[in-house]
Design a protein that fits this description.
Layout: E1 8-12, E2 38-42, E3 45-54, E4 57-67, E5 71-75, E6 79-84, E7 104-108, E8 113-120, E9 124-130, E10 138-146, E11 149-158, E12 161-168, E13 186-192, E14 197-206, E15 209-212, E16 219-221, H1 223-244
Parallel strand pairs: 9-16
Antiparallel strand pairs: 1-14, 2-15, 3-4, 3-14, 4-5, 4-6, 5-7, 7-8, 8-9, 10-11, 11-12, 12-13, 13-14
Amino acid sequence: MLKKSGKILSWNFATLNIETMRTCNPLFLILLYASNLVYAQRAQFKVTYDFFLSMAATEQYLSELLVSSETSLFLWGSPIANIRTSSEEELYINLGVNDPIGNFTYTDKLKDSMYSRSPFLRKKYICLREKIPVIPWKISAETRNIGPYHCQGASTVFRGREYKVWFTRELPVNSGPWKLQGLPGLILEAADATGEIRFLVKSITKLDTVYKPDFTGTTPVSLSEFTDYQRTLASDITRVIMSKLPRDASISITAHKSMEYFD
């Protein structure tokens, strides 16, 4: 179990008027249970975010970032809102599944490594292992306050999406939600230009410990292996669907919805 104790560092953002937005379901969405995490080392902050995703469905997650100067662990958490959408002509298939461990992104700065775990259909538990991405941030002169923190704006293009974020130098860890990191301070809010992805800070708590995720049963893969598996799985599902349809039926596959797009 995650240790829930810890002194309140600064602020609870739950009282802010945060607009609930139409958000998405990415290529893979899963549950993560804190009971499957194992104790690791000293921590600095636990940052809680409202995490919105809007693709084939509207999903809202209550996510956590456990961050120190050396590591960060972003836990998707359980969905707290889910609105399905569809039409007679379009069918969206989620390649992700739920399992007892779930979806997380773990960054180890000392090893220059980032691990992203994603359970897929067919009980395939994949952990993408890559070097920590170098994100080309452009810091602007824009400023605003979020709760008690003075924040500065920044923007970038990362994995096929344009992001605008707000970060504060008052919390000196160069981390943020999901894979967004590399600024001289903690990212408190982030959104992509399409409105399909959004992170809104809710609370920040001082902790004594941070946690390392459980990699049990996962298969470490490279970036190319990860994208190849996605394509293969989508093609296999298409063939299964076609085998159930009349001979004169036809279907076409459009670009999949995903949090990140790879070259």
